[in-house]
Amino acid sequence: MRILLVKTSSLGDVIHNLPVVSDLVRGIPDARIDWCVEEGFADIPRLHPAVRTVIPVAVRRWRRQLLAAATWREIGACRRQLAATPYDVVLDTQGLLKSALIARAASGVCCGYAAEVAREPLAARFYDRHFVIPRNVHAVERNRWLAAAAFDLPLDPPLDYGITAPALADRAWLPAADYAVLLTATSRDDKLWDEAHWIALGQALAEAGVQAVLPSGSARERERAVRIAARLPGAVTAPPLTLPALAGVIAAARLTVGVDTGLAHLAAALRVPTVALFVASDPALTGVYGSGFVRNLGGSGQPPTPDAVLAACRQALR
Question: Under DSSP, is residue 99 helix (H, G, I), strand (E, B) or coil?
Fold first, then answer.
């Protein structure tokens, strides 16, 4: 059976869709699974060995360059690639108008959420089959329940993200001792945890023999990571890393502590003990979720205290 999954973004949402692949492979032994995803996150589906082909789209970039001829050539090429394979089922687990249009461009029976439960109700007009999946369950389970309904699979198989991080090609810059990955950056300033809190946490971890590794993306994020690392014994600011390399760094850590960012979800998917910090969002339906040690602390307008975070870290390290 040829299956196309459509889950394009964001990083956390793409990670939340990985267990669908594992469920499909378990329930449909002859499943051949492709995945359509935003180009910046294409390396995530590639971590799952059961994903045969990753079809990247660039909706975010295309929107910024709609008047460019190159944009329309790329869109045309993408539509031809989607239509070239005769899929038995095209499953859109995103429920947005953009993802529904992508799913509709593919060749196959198109399945997705019913209008009353889709994130954007208009998306349901483009599906051949619709399913009412409760909104009040975690995003991981909502994806899995939709797949179970579309393919008539059991609802309760064990949770399995199915991914393994690639081995690190270069470990020379990492601490020789145990380390914790501190994910201090996120997409919105109101989701940041106070720098003084990070310093207090990092110092306590150093006293316990666990040094800090601080990844960053943008120049501004790197400046923040450098400021924090300068106050922590033995801390390392990570060099620029690809997403697969960063997965390797996280997979080798004793612990990951992160704000509301997709990389914290990646740590949970890799079964690394993970403590997620919520400052301006609610973790109930989209917090870190996994079969290993995971803790979601704080909430909208209620940042977790350093003592609470340190207590969770100590429990994880034990």
Answer: helix
